[in-house]
Specification:
- Chains A, B: One of its GO terms (molecular function) is DNA-binding transcription factor activity.
- Chains A, B: This is GntR family transcriptional regulator.
- Chains A, B: It holds the Pfam family Peripla_BP_3.
- Chains A, B: Keywords: DNA-binding, Transcription, Transcription regulation.
- Two copies of one chain form a homodimer.
- A six-stranded parallel sheet of chain A has the order 2-1-3-4-5-11, sandwiched between helices. Chain A has a four-stranded parallel sheet with strand order 7-6-8-9, with helices on both faces.
- The N and C termini of chain A lie far apart (93 Å).
- Chain A has three domains: 44 residues, lambda repressor-like DNA-binding domains (434 Repressor (Amino-terminal Domain)); 130 residues, Response regulator (Rossmann fold, 3-Layer(aba) Sandwich); 130 residues, Rossmann fold, CATH 3.40.50.
- Chain A is elongated and about 85 Å long.
- With 344 residues, chain A is α/β, with parallel strands linked by helices.
- In chain A, helix 1 crosses helix 3 and helix 2 crosses helix 3.
- Chains A and B meet through helix 4, helix 5, strand 2, helix 6 and helix 10 of A and helix 4, helix 5, strand 2, helix 6 and helix 10 of B.
- Strand 2 of chain A pairs antiparallel with strand 2 of chain B, so a sheet runs across the interface.
- The structure holds a DNA duplex (30 and 30 nucleotides).
DNA sequence: CGCTATCATGATAGCGCTACCATTCCTTTT
DNA sequence: AAAAGGAATGGTAGCGCTATCATGATAGCG
């Protein structure tokens, strides 16, 4: 018996989902015209467009973006990879990205590495599998495999948070300079026994870069630059606890330069509870310019980093690139601002 | 001339992307066996599996998830829709979701409504287009169109944050009860002139629910329950500013029940700056149990809501459902805890 | 030993959409 | 008037993968 008797035709469509072909039929046009009416409205007659849109509405058509992406190998998905969601700075960058990208019809695929570069590599692989239109990642450091993968990818890559020569596009600030800036400020104020306190500097290596800048300035003055590295992630709690530790290890400390505002504010509030005067007994400085720092007494001296702005700018530059425009500058310095409060 | 002379064969593959067929060829098996080796490892011989995995490694194959999703109409994408990313409570829920879902190989598609239900509807439509495996959304309220869309969707829907009868699954807490709880606490402490302060209660309607509970308790005692509604979103700044406003409008105020800890902490810190004693001159209570509240002096009385736990539990329940297990309980109450500090 | 049950594998046919090329019917140009 | 260009539309053939069914090989059974 020959095999060309398909008694039962293969039947795969499971759902009652409305397809573009059905819309096209209802609108009296071909599927491809319906597709164009939705995706390139200027390429069809007004008449066709109106009929298609009307049919879409009437049938409750929801475009199958998966099929569209497969056919066009463009997805309007943007992969965003951050090392942490607890740290609010990344969330603020995401927010800036989000609002700008969503307005242009892009969707965010969110990944969290927990400061693990191998995890980043895995996420990048997965996201590539989604034919993402672009990738945003926090930081310029990647492991070897990830670097290779990124280098061979033919879509825009945006590295944010720190300024430097990256894979492709870059929006960030100079953390070494920020560290120098705060250290200079502390020197100017007359402090000489200054401790830098950071949390997990191998993970939050940008805080490590700020320490480099800090140390540079102190050493240029012939001053030592002791470092206290905490084993927990930065938090109010960790900051509060670190105060005791620092004063025990370095009894002559006049000022503490904290890696971020959470630590600094935690220490400041703890100092108050312990009856220590800030900055009389101990001066405290932070980094980020979180609102909290403005509401404690004395106000926290800190460095304001434009985080949402960084996200928005990164998104705008990506959109420029994705819409085929030439990109003249690949690096964008968003800068930072020293905000002196009463705490130093 | 007949049309069957395809001089130039249509050529669409643009990239040099390695495909599953190439892997299969390299491994000496058919494409479908290669597919099974990767997705259902227990359905192929150990020999085949080893060869395929080796070929994957050697060729640097990255699965095209878009094609896979189209073919299987399953995507391992989970849509997560929140009203805000500024408000840290949602971020913490996302974090709980994220860590649990990623561990199971699901990816998060993130959407932000900015407290706009029409925006939510648009996001839901878009996400459905991605054949998401499930949808997580904050809150039980949707507009009519969105409700219809959700009701007809044949994948799990998880509504988080507030407890109640939702579309499908639900993990949250009872905000009315939380409002009652704090109000009772304030009554117990002897306060009678109590003002509730919230920010944009039509948007943050859960804060409105807490006010309902609050009012219920006060009215049962024959006490009025004045409400001050701010026009900005909750923040330290708004809390600080509200203090003056409340005292001007209600000079006899003994206690302020704030809709959240940001407002409360802002007011508490502002009171200190103004030389007001807390709780002597004015008692202050919040909601959420943010770390900040534990570090101010006096410690903030608040209600602790298990936000990350809420995210984790929601994720676990979704995974149960997605792996075909029976779900016996659709509603999960994560509860809350009154945390009394010195501020009341 | 024949019969069914189980396993490993493969051939085929889509999933729903869009890129590509071809066609038709105008309008413009020289 | 003929040639050239442009706008609107459609036919065809995939995008890269997996569901479905079919097949052959092996095992289990009385």
């Amino acid at each position: 018996m020959s095999k060309d008797s398909p008694a039962t035709v293969k039947q795969r469509r499971n759902s009652d989902q409305v397809t573009l072909s059905q819309v096209a039929q209802a609108a009296g046009v071909s599927p491809i015209t319906a597709s164009r009416a939705l995706n390139h409205p200027d390429k069809v007659s007004e008449n066709a467009r109106r009929n298609v849109l009307e049919a879409v509405e009437r049938l409750g058509y929801v475009p199958n973006l998966v099929a569209g992406s497969l056919a066009s190998s463009r997805s309007r998905l943007i992969a965003v990879i951050v090392p942490s969601l607890i740290n609010t700075v990344f969330v603020e960058v995401i927010k800036g990205l989000q609002e700008t990208l969503e307005a242009e019809g892009y969707q965010i695929l969110l990944g969290n590495t927990d400061y693990d570069l191998d995890r980043e590599y895995q996420l990048v692989r997965t996201f590539f599998g989604w034919s993402c239109s672009a990738l945003v990642t926090a930081g310029l450091r990647h492991n070897q495999a990830c670097h290779t993968l990124l280098a061979n990818w033919d879509h825009p890559i945006m590295e944010v948070m720190e300024l430097g020569k990256g894979m492709d596009l870059n929006v960030g600030l100079d953390h070494v300079a920020a560290g120098r800036c705060m250290a200079s400020h502390l020197i100017d104020r007359g402090y000489r026994h200054i401790v830098y306190v950071g949390a997990r500097l191998t993970q939050d290596y940008r805080a490590g870069m700020r320490y480099e800048g800090h140390r540079e300035v102190l050493q240029a003055q012939g001053i030592e630059a002791p470092l206290v590295e905490l084993d927990t992630l930065g938090s109010l709690q960790a900051g509060a606890e670190s105060l005791t530790q620092v004063l025990a290890q370095h009894p002559h400390t006049q000022a503490i330069h904290f890696a971020n505002d959470d630590l600094a504010a935690g220490a400041l509030l703890a100092a108050q509870r312990q009856g220590l005067s800030v900055p009389g007994d101990i001066a405290i400085a932070g980094f980020n310019g979180l609102p909290l720092g403005q509401h404690v007494t004395p106000q926290l001296t800190t460095i304001l980093s434009p985080r949402e702005e960084m996200g928005r700018l990164a998104a705008k530059e990506l959109i420029r690139r994705l819409s085929g425009k030439n990109v003249y500058r690949r690096q964008h310095d968003v800068g930072f601002t020293l905000q002196t409060g009463g705490s130093t």
